[in-house]
Amino acid sequence: MKHLISIDDLTRQDAIDVLDTAEHMAQTQSRSIRKLPTLVGRTVVNLFFEDSTRTRISFEAAAKRLSADIINFSAKGSSLSKGESLKDTALTLDAMGADAIVVRSSSSGAAHLLANAGWIDKPIVNAGDGTHEHPTQALLDAYTLRRHLVEGPTGSDLAGKRVIIVGDILHSRVARSNVKLLSLLGASVTLVAPPALIPIGVQSWPCEVSYSLDAAIAEGADAVMMLRVQRERMVGGGFFPTEGEYSRRFGLSTDRADRLPDHAVVLHPGPMNRGFEIASDVADGPRSVIVEQVNNGVSVRMSVLYHVLAAHTEEAS
Ligand code: CP
Q1: What is the spatial distance between Cα 52 and Cα 264, in angstroms, rounded to a whole number?
Q2: Same domain, yes or no, for 115 and 204?
Q3: Same domain for 76 and 151?
Q4: How far is CA 96 from CA 33, 91, 125, 261, in A?
Q5: CATH number of the domain within which 270 lies
Q6: Annotated binding site
Q7: Which of 46, 47, 48, 52, when mutated, tests ligand 1's pocket best, judged by the most ligand atoms within 8 Å of its CB?
Q8: How many structural domains does the chain have?
Q9: Ligand 1: does its nearest atom lie under 6 Å from the Cβ of 52?
Q10: ipTM over 0.90 threshold
């Protein structure tokens, strides 16, 4: 794995290897070994053109726990506000000794461009690009599901598990990456949303589509993943149905959560709109693995940084 731009960069075995390495990383953390010497002398750059809490902080924690140096770069306050291009920003970071670049952008394709334009020859990790993909979020979600749903998770996939993904599929890079990864790992996925929030072309995705959360829950599920309605990506501010109707039909209320099988878990990538797409009692309830997702994100991102930098070192030697 030279770069991680999309789940398409991974084979099933690559994905299992990343999850297994993350499991190993998590075990070292639980034994209070807070720092591994794996990436000592390497520099990871967090290049964030779009706001982030969880992803930016967990990549920073992951790099530090592997003993790498980390440079945090955000568009606000940089020369990008003076019109500097992505190319010149990348060349500057390369000149400063970046060994890997983690990039988030509101532009779909930004990470692909950095990896393939020929400006720099360093591993690029996509930390979310527009409405395209968020592969490390999908990996941490799969890791969390595997821990809850599979006995002796190491080496396993998610074959036979059923995951419902609910909400603003249209604008969700998390949904796109999750549909690809969960199906690669053998799970079946059902997307649930109002028709206005289902992307054109979804028929070619490896998943089912439903317009009724109640019907999807009635068929049984091992996990329900709720998504945020991304008003900031809705051109012209359009949002259909009304917020009240959306919440009634597509929100995960306590009543709906109570109809899930006992073992089923509830996920949300964050940030959440409590009381809108998910009831606070469900977000904080016994089925919720939302805080655990954040914690697992550090181990999974340690694993991803290890894999891309190891591949780059092998290629260079
Ligand atoms: N899940 C996720 O990407 O969250 P942030 O936007 O806070 O990084």
Answers
A1: 28
A2: no
A3: no
A4: 30, 9, 18, 52
A5: 3.40.50.1370
A6: 54-55, 82, 104, 134, 137, 173, 228, 270-271
A7: 52
A8: 2
A9: yes
A10: yes
